[in-house]
Amino acid sequence: MDIITALFDFILHVDKHLELFIQSYGAWVYALLFLIIFVETGVVVMPFLPGDSLLFVVGAMCGVGLMSYPLSVALLLTAAILGNQSNYTIGHYFGPRVFKWDDSRWFNKKAFDQAHAFYEKYGGITIVAARFMPFLRTFAPFVAGVAQMTRSRFTLFDVVGGTLWVGGIVTVGYFFGNIAWVKLHLDKIIWSMILVPGLLVLLGAWKSRRKAVQ
């Protein structure tokens, strides 16, 4: 319970924790941020780490000169791309071994073929859009690996999505993160960055389910 409380405290007050870490450990903050983004995007069991809010606050820290903007974007983009590649590889490697394909009663060949066809056709937009969806961005590359999405196609959209996600949110934080109103309501902004994308995903799933039933 204490771990969960500490995690929520870190997510909601990431600006204060990050500034304190910079003051205490200086350039080591880049290694910490690289690790957080890599684990959040690259380890399928770690979807609850802060992503969007962390990138926004990093941008704000760059805006006041506490961090380097080009170095932060380059490192975090690398972490995001490598994280997705790691997640894809885990799904691609362990998926067939976990389900043992046709030899397993848990494996549905028709469902797999449908998933594979979906990712070949819509996987690109799925990978890019998932970057901006907490939780979904952790699972999308894993499922792409399990569904055996073509690696070259996955990599293309991994880079595109990662660039839009990291570059976009860090830049928004750089220009707007230190505005007085934004700093005053940062906790609400962080909650909105966590909840709004999740609600959009649930709404989309509900609409798809209704259409399927009809």
Describe this structure in words.
- With 214 residues, this protein is mostly helical.
- The chain has one domain (2-40, 52-213).
- Helix content is 81%, strand content 0%.
- Helix 3 runs parallel beside helix 5, helix 4 packs across helix 8 and helix 6 (109-130) packs parallel to helix 8.
Task: List the SSEs and their pairings.
Layout: H1 2-12, H2 14-25, H3 28-42, H4 52-63, H5 69-99, H6 109-130, H7 136-146, H8 151-176, H9 180-184, H10 186-213
Radius of gyration: 19 Å
N-end to C-end Cα span:
43 Å
Q: Specify the biggest β-sheet.
A: none
Mean pLDDT: 79
Task: State the assembly state of the protein chains.
Answer: single chain
Briefly say what this structure is.
This protein has helices spanning 2-12, 14-25, 28-42, 52-63, 69-99, 109-130, 136-146, 151-176, 180-184, 186-213.
Features:
mainly alpha, 214 residues, 10 helices
